Amino acid sequence: MLLLPLFLLLTWQEAVRGRLLVLDEPLRTAIAGRSIRPAGSPLGHFFADLGNVGVALPVLGAALAFAVLRGRLAGQRHWWLPPLGYALAMVAVPLIVDPLKAAIGRGGPGSLALPPGYPGLFPSGHAATAMLAYGAAALLVLPWVRSRAARRALGGAVVLGNLAVGVALVYCGYHWPLDVAGSWCLCGVLLSAATLVTGRARGRCAACGMAAGALGPGVAGRGRGWCAGEGVRVGERPYAPPTAGTSKEATPMPVMAVSRFERFFRVAAELDVDKSDLKRYNDFISEKLYDLLLIAEATAKANGRDVLAPWDLPISKGLQESIHRFRDIDQEVELAPILQQLATYPPMDRAPSEETEARFPEIVGGLSLALAHAFKIIDPGVKNPQTKHWERAIAIFDLLL
After folding, report:
1. Which of 184, 201, 218 corresponds to the end of one domain?
2. pLDDT of 171-209, one tens digit each?
3. Angle separating helix axes 3-16 and 177-201, nearest 10 degrees
4. Residue 266's CATH number
5. Which residues pair with 204 in a beta bridge?
6. Is 302 found in the same domain as 182?
7. CA-to-CA distance for 37 and 282, rounded, in angstroms?
8. CA quadruple 172, 176, 179, 180: dihedral sign
9. Can you name the residues that pair with 351 across neighbouring β-strands?
10. Which residues contact 106 (CB under 8 A, 6 or more apart)?
11. Alpha-carbon torsion angle 57, 63, 66, 67, nearest 10
């Protein structure tokens, strides 16, 4: 990390009045002009005031409350870690800045006279407060922002906002440029440390090193960390999703009502299935739901969110049409309550939201209807699907999902 050595270098140069300080005057002149006591402007004072504790801390407090609320609602195991980490980083700012100001005693630029008893100007308290508060607030909120464009806009706003605060402090004659630069380096170190410690405390997957996430409502093994990349619980072997004709020993599928199972396939595609097909059907649903969730997890990760939203699921046009047709059939066969039991999945690194989980029965229904129609496409005359029909249908779904 270059920020820490750079901060130490600036601090040393300020303390010994080193050669780097010769950069202050030309940089200040480039920003504020040659006036001994720049008057600034209303806009400049506005941005400088964004570094006031009374302005920045409420923003951070709102972000802390938001992160706590969303983390608890999502069922995160360590929902309190990020808010606590960034709050402690904020507390560390005055504990570091104030003693350094007193020890170095940097004077003001131009004709700025410091009040009696004022310790000094390096590092800038306003610049440090703004960068830590607004930076931490953005880092707390970003994981819950769905749009990548919105995430970039938020990050850009924080960077530009802090740049505006720093320039305004120099422009209005409150600080030297190196005072501001020192605060930026210090807060960059604090934010990086808080982010690093928070990530490590949540645990890492032995298989891929990803940070273990929290489990959401309805997931077995709640509170244990799992990796989205390999499906691995921390310290354990990878989870292997079931394939057709095999069973998940760790998570046995619930048995659905055979009569409704048979009736559904008769209504959907005039197929006669029996109890022997139930196991294949259960494994098919489990595997395909798992495949959908893997892609949803990758989408959520790319957008920096810890929960799976409904729009993360890769529902194709054909599957969506099958879901709509299933709704009509379900009014007759009333299969949704049974499909709710079938909509099980292994623990994921990012948990589905309640809204996402509420869609699972209809998604399973759409997959079931698509499977029934696939049998008819493979063999229009089939009445009772045999092993070869199941294998061909599942192979087609494997190519598409």
Report:
1. 201
2. 888 889 999 999 999 999 999 999 888 765 444 333 333
3. 150
4. 1.10.20.10
5. 211
6. no
7. 78
8. positive
9. 307
10. 14, 120, 121, 122, 176, 179
11. -120
